[in-house]
Amino acid sequence: MRETTSTAAHTPPVFSPALSDEEGPRLATDLFREAFDAEPDGVWYAPGRVNIIGEHTDYNGGLAMPIALPHRAFLALRRRDDRTVRLVSPQTRDSVDVLNLDVIGPKGTRGEVRHWNAYVAGVAWALEQDGLGPLPGFDAALYSCVPLGGGLSSSAALECATAVALDDVASLGLAGTPDEPDEAGRARLVTACVRAENEVAGAPTGGMDQSASMRCGAGHALKLDCRDGSTQQVPFDLAAAGLALLVIDTKAKHSLVDGQYGARRAACERSAELLGVDLLADVSTTGLDAALDRLRASGESDVEVLVRRTRHVVTEIDRTRRLVDLLQDGAPLAGDKLAEAGALMNGSHDSLRDDYECTCPELDVAVDTARELGAHGARMTGGGFGGSAIALVDVDRVDEVARGIVAAYARHGFNEPAFLDATPSAPAGRLV
Ligand code: GLA
Question: I need a labelling partner for 90 at 20 to 30 A (CA). Which of 285, 298, 404, 429 fits?
């Protein structure tokens, strides 16, 4: 046991690199040429995300505040003259998947689409459902550096890359550019991506990931109001404040289709029903205690579970609003302001751990270790039950915190974690 610990303590942390504007398109284009023996029309990309705060609020009509990662999915794509779709990725490079836009459909129907193909074909299906078809078929090669299954929205990145690519080759005119986004058009593309995820891939997620990938801005976090889809850019220039956002990919497997996520969502919907509101975002912070008393009086079985879920959602929306307010003036994140931001992030994690019960030992150890080693704030990010955590740290302490987490994971016998540096980056667009 001691031997394992001391060896692992000296294992340097592994940082997953982000592909550059040159490397990503080159790798996707090489794969495209190899598979289809032709040149793509272009290369489009969309980023993964981390959520700074506002977890499990999106499907409750609340606020979230994600940033786009520098890690992106790159899609080299060429329009076809028929309705065939051919797809290839590095994992499946020996066999091209062939689909047809006239056949694809929601999960559970005859047109059901398997594995990652659902995220691509599902977007085409959803755009046509929205009256934007008929779309042309296409050949596409995917090359992504968003870690798979890390809770960093690798699937939303793929959906959004597909959406901006189809927007372009089918001349839908919805996306604008990352520098001059068409907000209404992007909101419509987000809706198609969410339908692809919910109906074609079958994951009952809330839409924050797709909004982040499509609507974030470089150097900013996105205030996302999930009730009406409205957004606002919030200054979040960490480097200027001497800070970094360390992402810890716990390598503990999570899945959004395994029932836990759906169970949380169903509990929120049941609470809203018992309280007579459309969405839990309708419960105010000041009205929370009275609402919890009403829930307790409902006689529902397992009512304390509903109480805890509701308390998380309502307090989390409040924490998110407070962090947005704090950051809005754009002044450097330092002193009391930094301490308050960190406390809000910590409060979010603690509520997700105790009231929403969606953390896991790997997430809690990452967060506790980061805090012990001087992180200003640390929390899980995304859906939970595995996936990733984030820690707001001084830039010169990133390595020490990462090493400490590697050592703590070895002591607990967990999988070795991976790390990412999360610089707030640009939303989905075209590179070549
Ligand atoms: C996952 C889902 C999102 C959101 C988060 C939790 O990432 O895809 O829609 O619900 O979990 O905030």
Answer: 429
Contact 430, 44 (CB under 8 A): yes
CA within 13 Å, CB half, 145 = 20
- Cα of 386 vs centre of ligand 1, distance in Å, is 13
Q: Which of 205, 224, 256, 356 to mutate to test the pocket of ligand 1 (most atoms within 8 A of CB)?
A: 205
Q: Which atom of ligand 1 is nearest to the CA of 197?
A: 8
CA 234 – ligand 1 centroid, Å: 20
* Torsion from C-alpha of 221, 227, 230, 232, nearest 10 degrees: -30
pTM of the complete model: 0.96
Catalytic one of 209, 225, 249, 318: 209
Predicted local confidence at residue 254, as pLDDT: 63
Smallest CA-to-CA distance from 15 within 203, 249, 175, 223 is with 249
Residues in Cβ contact with 157 at an 8 Å cutoff, skipping those fewer than 6 apart: 46, 47, 48, 72, 73, 144, 146, 213
> Is 209 a known active-site residue?
yes
Confidence grade of residue 91 (pLDDT, cut at 50, 70, 90): confident
Mean pLDDT of 361-390: 97
Does the C-beta of 55 come closer than 6 Å to ligand 1? yes
How many helices (H) does the chain have, and how many strands (E)? 12, 14
pLDDT digits (tens, 9 = 90+) for 406-420: 999 999 999 999 999
Whether 345 and 52 have beta carbons less than 8 Å apart is answered as: yes
What whole-number distance in Å separates Cα of residue 201 and Cα of residue 197? 5
Ranges of beta strands (E only) in 236-381 are 243-249, 377-381
Q: What is the pLDDT of residues 233-266, one digit of tens each?
A: 999 999 999 999 999 999 997 665 578 999 999 9
The answer to whether 211 and 222 have CB atoms below 8 angstroms apart is: yes
